[in-house]
């Protein structure tokens, strides 16, 4: 059911195909040539500019033109921190640019790094840049945050300006011709005005209108964009999807929702069995939803282009799971939708989680580690050996001190096996075996 998103299908494959950005292309090529000559003018470049101006496209096209492999990673996802460190290790020692197949390392969204939580991320990237034997390209929308100063200093900064109206017009016209869709000239102009230089937005609007209505007129473009502006709350989103008769209605409902996608999955998950009474319909809806969840994770990890599949599966996938939908005699069931249980549970424990996070952050700050690392490697031992002096040094509030002490007290009282003991036993057992 899912079709390839046009932003991927029509992504330029070579620098020559990229519209505008001549100055950027020239600078990037010069930089690459300096690497090939063995004397890089800078080890890394930082491409910065508004969304949809072609930063990722430039990196991909450059790699293709130079017949290199692009190692692409989203820097803002803390789960990639270890991967960045590993790459730093390998990039320092292995291969040459000319070997079997050279590599370019591409770190997207460096401005999305949470420098407070992931204190290790910027140092890891700096180390990578210092040691690397491969060219490094970074991308950001807004690189001017003070926390990115060192990154800025360690890279050649290249500005990617937003796309002009003529460039956007050429991109859209080409797609219309290729897809053989009827596109009114006025419709394209209004898409271009709405997108304000963002090619991704422009192409996505074009695709939504074309797929929904098979033609692109000014009136339809305005209708879709208006609908996008008036966002749906979770109840309206669910109703619009479950009651949709056509795939495009369900897809529009999902893309116009004000609820973020992770949360929307929880809303659907809670309400599918309320809406559908036939077990096979329920099964099909959950099947589509679970796939949406997989694509969402992959989109966040590697390529936001995959979001389109999330919309297809969460919207039309769930909507058309009901057999006989839209046929004569079919009528949508009116249901009172429920708030997701998991969120209710989470909000009940919100206070505790916030306290725990604050404790982990304070420890992490002292140890220059991420909260995740502190939670896994340090916290179990920390609670065991905690004393007042440590609380003072870490600047714990009285409530945080009480929390850590109570946590230990409760374990001693209930005889609950403390995690640290389990960890130690596990460690001993495993080291003995080896
Ligand atoms: N200069 C361009 N010429 C042709 N197509 C372009 C150009 N810039 C962007 N596009 C189209 O827009 C899509 C989105 O662009 P891209 O992902 O490169 O933007 P970006 O600048 O990396 O955005 P973000 O900052 O949000 O990551 C591309 O897949 C491509 O189809």
From TrEMBL:
ATP binds at residues 49-56. Keywords: ATP-binding, DNA replication, Nucleotide-binding. Pfam families: AAA, RCF1-5-like_lid. The keyword ATP-binding applies. One of its GO terms (biological process) is DNA replication. Heteromultimer composed of small subunits (RfcS) and large subunits (RfcL). This is Replication factor C large subunit. It comes from Candidatus Aramenus sulfurataquae. The gene is rfcL.
